[in-house]
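Worked example

This section walks through a single chain of length 244. The input is the sequence exactly as stored; nothing has been trimmed or padded.
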Amino acid sequence: MVFTKQSSKEGGSAAPFQRVKTYLSHELSCGTWLPGQLMPSESQLMQRFSVSRMTVNRALRELQAEGLIDRVQGVGTFAAALHKVSSTLSIHDLQEEIESRGHRHTAQVQLHRAEAASPALGEQLGLPAGSEVFHTMILHLEDDMPLQCEDRYVNPLAAPGYLDQDFSRITPTRYLFSHTALRRAQYSVHAACATPEEASLLQIEPDTACLIMVRRTMSHSQVITLARLVHPGHRYQLNGEFNP
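Given that input, the structure is written out below as C-alpha cells.
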C-alpha cells in the first residue's frame, strides 16, 4: 500500500500524535483494515505525517491500549481481533460474566426461526420490508435463576450461518463476536415492565420493574443485529467507572 505525505489541511492544528491516531481510528471505523489485517508500518506513517518515530509510537500505544490494534514486535501492526474491538464497545458475553462469578450459565431457546421483516424492523436492520430476517428468543439463567430474556433479530447478510447454531450451547453474542466484523453499537436503556411473555419466562410478576436494553450493532457497511435484553431489576445491575 502506497501513502502520500499528509497535506497541511488533513491534520489541522491537532498535536502530531493525535493527527496520526485520529487518522488510524477513522480508517479502522470505515473498515479500511479488517480484523487481523496488516496496517501501515511506522516508517510509512512517519513519512505520511512528517513526524518522528516517537510520535507514531505514542499514537500506536494509545490505540493498542484501547484495544483497536495489535502490535507484534518485528512483524508489524494489525487491526484488532473481533473480540478486542467488541470489548472497547463494552459489549460482553453474558455467559462469560456469569461464569466469571463462579456460577453456572444455562440457556433455554424459546424461538429459533426465519421470518419476514415488518417495515419498522426492516428499517432498523437496513433491509427492505418483507426481507428474510433471523429471529431468536433465549432465556438465560444463572444457577437456574432466570436472569435475562434476549429477543434478537439478525441480518442474514451479516451472519448467514446464525440459525445453524445451537444456542443452548453457545450464546448469540459469542457467535456474532466470532463471525462478524463488529465496529459500532447503539444503546437505549430504560426501566419498564416486561411483556406478559417475558414476565412468564423470567418468573416475575407482570408489574415487576425491569432493566431493558435495546442494542443495535453494525459493521462498517451494514447492520448486524437488533436485540432487546430484559433483566428483572432486582436481579441485575449495570456497573461503570469514571476516571477523570
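What to look for: DSSP finds nine helices and eight strands in the chain.
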